[in-house]
Amino acid sequence: MKKAFLCCLLLFALVMAKADTVYVADLARQISLKSLQKVAVAEVPISTHYKLPPEHAFRPFLPNYKSKSKHAYWLKITLKNNSGYRRQLYFNSSMCDYTFLYRKEKKSLIKLSVAGRLVTNSELPLKYNYLLLPIDLEENIAVTYYLLAYNQHVGAPHINFQLYNNDDLPFDDYRDEFKETVITLFFFGAFSFLSLFMLFMHRKSGQRIYLFYALYLIGAILYSLTRLSPITLLGAWLGNFPVWRIAFNEPAQFIFFALYNLFAIELLDAKKQDPILAKILQRLAIAYVLYALAYYLFNTFYLNQQMRNILFNVHRIILFPINILLIARCIYKIKSPVLGYFVTGMVFFMMASLLAVFSVLFLRNFDSGEPIKAINIFQVGLMLEALCFAFALGYKIKLAEQEKKESQQALILQLEANQLLTKQTNAILEEKVKLRTQELLLANQKIEEKKAKEVKDFFEKKLAQAETMALRSQMNPHFLFNSLNAIKYLIQTNESKMAISYLTKFSRLVRIVLEHSKTELISLESELEALRLYLEIESKRLGEQFHYEIKIAKSISTSGIQIPPMLLQPFVENAIWHGLLNSNKPHKVVNIILQKIPRKNGIICQIIDNGIGREKASLIKRNTMKTHQSFGMSLILDRVKLFNLQPYRKIEVSIDDVIKNEEIDGTNVSIKIYETTTD
Hints:
The protein is of the alpha+beta class. It is 56% helix and 17% strand. It has helices spanning 2-19, 169-205, 208-226, 233-238, 242-267, 270-273, 275-301, 305-333, 339-362, 374-492, 496-516, 524-542, 569-580, 614-623, 632-643, and strands at residues 21-23, 30-32, 40-45, 59-60, 71-80, 87-92, 98-105, 108-115, 132-137, 142-150, 162-164, 522-523, 546-552, 562-563, 588-596, 602-609, 649-660, 663-675. Strands 1, 3, 4, 5, 7, 8 and 10 form a seven-stranded mixed β-sheet that branches. It has a five-stranded mixed β-sheet with strand order 13-15-16-18-17, covered by helices on one side. A four-stranded antiparallel β-sheet has the order 2-11-6-9, with no helix packed on it. Residues 5-17, 364-371 and 470-475 have low confidence and may be disordered. This is Histidine kinase. Residues 68-149, 181-396 form the 7TM-DISM receptor extracellular domain. Keywords: Kinase, Membrane, Signal, Transferase, Transmembrane, Transmembrane helix.
């Protein structure tokens, strides 16, 4: 009876053991431990993580199982190799700080290996992969393994472990690492060489643009160092500083962004072309550096993967639209021959950044089915951007050299011309010396006559200038008198607010008129500025029935044309006071049109109103008592006559009626301003 009971008990134990055993031959190439339903998990406080929990603490490791912060997790799995030959499997330790692998032998645990983000490269079982934990399985032997996973710092450990049933996994993984490393090493070598060359150029030329470009490249190199594969010597050495690699990854990017901004300011000459954009880029660079420092210090002492993931997403959401706006402002404001290269480089960089962020979801490698490395996409984008910037810098150097060459060529031509002129002058002087004795008396006579003529011309010019100043002195009081009459009218009609506004604009106009009265000539641009202010004042006085418009042809540079001050205003004033105020039309319009005179070096300014015309205006002035003094017209016409006495300039004034439907429909004043040559 006892023997039968013992046999049943042994059979039950064997059945139960078989139920908890995972058979290797039945496994897929890659499977999650949560989906096996034969894995047990036990949760313990982080303070007692090193103690193996009792068997009753383990429970099934199901797909909906979630980990907690400040806890460690023991996973238990029994594997049996029923493949008929020795096998090697691999646990993927997921993104935990530490994952220890133990094998149970009788009543003791044997530590096999350790992996994780904070494990140094010298401690890893596979030197090029901090996630994989290899296990060797003999044929037809069941072995129980324990996995201990926990995070040293804040944050729940990610215990979504995978089991790889693939003997070739190290080779496949090494192959993938090698593909990534080839691009990274090319990136590292190209940027290192280019940065050294730019530092050399800066040392030789002293130009800051080379220094900032070199620093921009060095910033990109620093970022690539944090992602350098451990299959390289440098990557293996850096793998001994896992905390630095994790904490410095994101700050390296922001240091790179800061140096990028400083380089962009120099490349686009933003301080001259758009000072506001330059200030924005400078302040963003300072903000990037400060944030990188704070981020590095925070993550060095407070590693938190969840917080880093959140900050990573927030950064990209904020920075992407900022860069879009900066590109738009550059296109709108910056006028630089290298702008196209700069914008193209930024577009490459932004596209690569977006592809890198979404590569895990959308881009697949067709050979292995694994995600394309985001760092490689990002590095390719950086290389394309750096290539565009190198083209921009080269083109800028070419333009500078071309300008320098043209200046040197112009200087050589000028020196040759001077040399030829010197020879010709010497020949002429020698000939004149020979004839000087014979022509001395005649030459002296001519010189005396010439001096007499020059003195006469000089005094005539000074007299004309004095008369012009006298007329201009009369012009200013005349204008002030008429404007004060307008203010008086507004006050008498109880238009106090309008009078105050009128006075404000009037004071500005008086200041401009007084400044103009001190100079003989002003630019057409300044004259139009005063004219606009005068029309605004009249518009406030006359109300909504008065309209005016100033049209300037695009081919006219108003800042480069010199005219006498107060040339246009008297004609406009005359059109308003005598042409429009006496009109019964509901809409009173004055148009000032400036156009180029075809095939002549000059412009024409037309002042066109839809008033009553010259004849009716003259009749009204004769038959009514004058409330508005109008002798400004005669003054300005006298000033034009005196102005035409000066050489190289000429002004013509003509006044005609505007005929519409065989009736007079206003007045057209045409003022032609010519710039004549010295020939």
